[in-house]
Amino acid sequence: MKQYKWGILAPGKMSAKFTNGLKLLGNVELYAVGSRDTVRAEKFAREHGFKKYYGSYEDLATDPEVEIVYIASPHSHHYEHTMLCLKNRKAVICEKAFALNSREVEMMISEAVMQKVFLMEALWPPFQPMYKKTKEIHGSAVAGKVLHMNARFSFQPPFDPADRKFNPELGGGSLLDIGIYPVIDVLTFMGVPSEVIACASFAETGAEQSISVIFRYEDGRMANIYSSFMTNAGIGCDILCEKGNLFFSRKRDMSQNLLLAIHGKEAEEYSMIPEGMGYHFEAVEVMKCLEEGRIESDIVPHSFSLNLINTLDRIRKSAGIVFPGRD
Ligand SMILES: NC(=O)c1ccc[n+]([C@@H]2O[C@H](COP(=O)([O-])OP(=O)(O)OC[C@H]3O[C@@H](n4cnc5c(N)ncnc54)[C@H](OP(=O)(O)O)[C@@H]3O)[C@@H](O)[C@H]2O)c1
Q: What string of pLDDT tens digits covers the 327 residues of the chain?
């Protein structure tokens, strides 16, 4: 079995979780870490067992041995760091939000296509067994057509103006951090809306801290989306269909639950806790695509990432969310 040499770009909190997922896989070599700071790179490399570490992202991207780079810098830097790796012909899996706006994502995808190099947005939900089950039920005649959705993600992080979540320069705000998940849910189960209406409230740093969104479809159907750093609503989505309802939820430890309540029938409940918080499924997909010589995944194709960022742009425009110098 071929061993793929992985590089980690930006060893923050998410990189630690993703690396724990990589450790579950037999065809992964934990090869190199790149940080803006050599001491941080060395610490992460030692803690997780990487062979090499670099005090710059350029050094990681130009190491000829690195084959796949996982990028988990703040959203504001995904475009720059993805381009750096693609130009050095590394396969890239980059965290959500893929970039700050559609233009940046279009350029990232064009570069991957031009270089004939693999690129995928690191979206957790589509790879999860419970999400796949929900899609399977949705695709069958069991529940019937989706008529409405309520989807939400909120939690209460301590306010810290220096944290990327509250810093507009770093793409801060609940929308790209957690609101992206209910947006993914609605795009997956109802498609791209014809109309988007959104209202937001803002923290003293200028970053959005709470947002309510309505999607409207040509045929009159609607969906409600909510994300916030002000409340603790958890993570969930209600899919209200002709013949019954599906209630999907997950906790912050990534345990997942699906309740299928078909009218007139006893409700069925499914639940699971994925190993390694479920992040390894994305890495498996990257390496499977490389084995097959592909530059994009069928599970998160470039077209889905484009629909997602276009929709996020429309939401931001409606709610008046601006990232300084980046629109
Ligand atoms: N898929 C998921 O479930 C999930 C969950 C959480 C977060 N994420 C995503 O992962 C990304 C990182 O989130 P995180 O929570 O890991 O953030 P974090 O802990 O703040 O780490 C971000 C890292 O980026 C690097 N960095 C580069 N330029 C920076 C700058 N100007 N300011 C601050 N840090 C900078 C830093 O590493 P060095 O300076 O050492 O290079 C830092 O450790 C975000 O895009 C987020 O949306 C995804």
A: 899 999 999 999 999 999 999 999 999 999 999 999 999 999 999 999 999 999 999 999 999 999 999 999 999 999 999 999 999 999 999 999 999 999 999 999 999 999 999 999 999 999 999 999 999 999 998 999 999 999 999 999 999 999 999 999 999 999 999 999 999 999 999 999 999 999 999 999 999 999 999 999 999 999 999 999 999 999 999 999 999 999 999 988 889 999 999 999 999 999 988 888 899 999 999 999 999 999 999 999 999 999 999 999 999 999 999 999 887
**Cβ atoms within 10 Å of 252's Cβ, excluding its own:** 9
Sketch the domain layout of the chain as residue ranges. Answer: 4-124+281-294, 125-278
Rounded to an integer, what is the distance from CA 220 to the centroid of its chain? Answer: 29
| β-sheet with 4-9: strand ranges across | 52-54, 28-34, 4-9, 68-71, 91-95, 119-122
Contact 273, 253 (CB under 8 A): yes
| Ligand 1 centroid from CA 270, angstroms | 32
Question: Is domain 125-278 classified as CATH 1.20.1250.20?
Answer: no
Residue whose CA is at the smallest distance from ligand 1 atom 35: 73
Ligand 1 atom closest to Cα of 277?
A: 3
Residue nearest to atom 5 of ligand 1 (CA): 14
| CATH architecture label of 4-124+281-294 | 3-Layer(aba) Sandwich (3.40)
Domains 4-124+281-294 and 125-278 share a fold: no
Ligand 1, pocket-test mutation among 15, 73, 277, most atoms within 8 A of CB: 73
